[in-house]
Design a protein that fits this description.
It is a single chain. The chain has 281 residues and is α/β, with parallel strands linked by helices. It has a single domain, classed as Vaccinia Virus protein VP39 (Rossmann fold), CATH 3.40.50.150. Helices cover 32% and strands 21% of the residues. It contains eleven helices and eight strands. Strands 1, 2, 3, 4, 5, 6, 7 and 8 form an eight-stranded mixed β-sheet that branches. Helix 5 links the parallel strand 2 and strand 3. The longest helix is centred in the first third of the chain and has 15 residues. The protein starts with a helix and ends in a 15-residue tail after the last strand.
Length: 281
């Protein structure tokens, strides 16, 4: 069983490789760092290209939803994007915040930060900032963000509870988040949970949907709403690298589900008691 530090390093190395690849390679890969299926498909991501503020150079095809589409961003908002990659969601959020708003992207991979900063500078975006850091310990002051967004990132983090604590901390009272992520219904075969390639590919790092929602509730958020949900299909020519043909058949028949969900939740305007992540305990 790998430690949290080891899992983080796997993801860091994988996404450093991804930063140097083109979108087509990333989208056709189960793990983002090399093609591994003969089928033409896209496991995770949705099409961003119709959204205002979209920049193709910043879209690495690594998301599993469209959180910025559902994030209710207003002009003048301060938006924080967790796991900002090459800047795609940040640039769409910037279009919504306008000139009076600000967007801060956080990523712990230096290659991604460099790529995002180059993309922002090339477009003259002076109200978009990228900070290198761990989203379990965000380099952001408490109670400053109006909106937090994230796209297929929390499932890569071993300590998801710590991330939701941090989201609660950085949001203003009354602020909210919209997060797209991968969750499970039923148990994945152990071999998939333990395979680093699948972990970095956003599947075996996922947790049960109900547990995910309970984590949000346990950290003091209100108005928890699933804004969008879609099933994710993993082709057999990926699974055959990890399971026998018999195990694949059992997996398909077992009612196990892998889903992309986009979740909204709000930090209460008034905190009635000490809440984990609220800074009072």
């Amino acid at each position: 069983m790998k430690t949290e530090a080891e899992l983080k390093e796997i993801v860091r190395q994988k996404y450093s490789e991804i930063a140097l690849q083109d979108k087509e390679t990333n989208m056709s890969s189960c793990c983002g760092a090399g093609g591994c299926s003969t089928e033409v498909y896209n496991i995770m991501s949705d099409d961003y290209s119709t959204l205002e503020g979209y920049n193709a150079d910043a879209d690495l095809g690594l998301g599993c939803g469209l959180p910025t589409q559902f994030a209710r961003i207003k002009e003048g908002d301060l938006v924080v994007d967790l796991g900002s990659g090459a800047g795609n969601d940040c640039f769409i959020a910037r279009h919504e915040t306008g000139a009076t708003g600000k967007v801060i992207g956080i990523d712990f991979t230096s290659a991604m930060i460099e790529k995002a900063r180059k993309n922002a500078e090339a477009r003259g975006f002076n109200n978009v900032e990228f900070r290198q850091g761990d989203i379990e310990q965000m380099p952001i002051t408490s109670n400053v963000a109006d909106v937090v967004v994230s796209n297929c990132v929390l499932n890569l983090v071993p300590n998801k509870h710590a991330v939701f604590q941090e989201i609660y901390r950085v949001l203003k009272p009354g602020g909210h988040f919209s997060i797209s992520d991968v969750v499970l219904v039923g148990a994945l075969p152990n071999v998939l949970k333990e395979t680093a390639e699948m972990y970095a590919g956003c599947v075996s790092g996922a947790i049960q949907k109900q547990v995910y929602l309970e984590l949000i509730n346990a950290n003091g958020f209100d108005n928890i709403t699933i804004q969008k949900e879609k099933p994710i299909y993993i082709p057999d020519d990926i699974l055959i690298n990890h399971l026998s043909a018999e195990e694949i058949s059992s997996f398909r028949a077992g009612g196990i589900g892998i889903f992309s969900i986009t979740v909204f939740a709000q930090k209460p305007i008034e905190t009635k008691q000490c809440t984990p992540g609220g800074g009072c305990c």
